[in-house]
User: What shape does this take?
Amino acid sequence: MRAKELRELNDEELEHKLVDARQELFNLRFQSATGALENTARIPLVKRDIARIITIRGERQAALERQ
Assistant: This one.
């Protein structure tokens, strides 16, 4: 998901996306460990999505602190 799309979400939706992404990463790692993972390129993409979400949360928090 693009950062622009994530910025359009409200805080609750953003947290839900973060929980979903972390759960997906857990499942992908589990599949990788058991040898069932077919698309290994998905792991770095999910990690990147998690980083984007955390960055946007930090930006929003910093904006609130400046006010």
About this structure: The helical segments are 3-7, 11-34, 42-66. The mean pLDDT is 95.
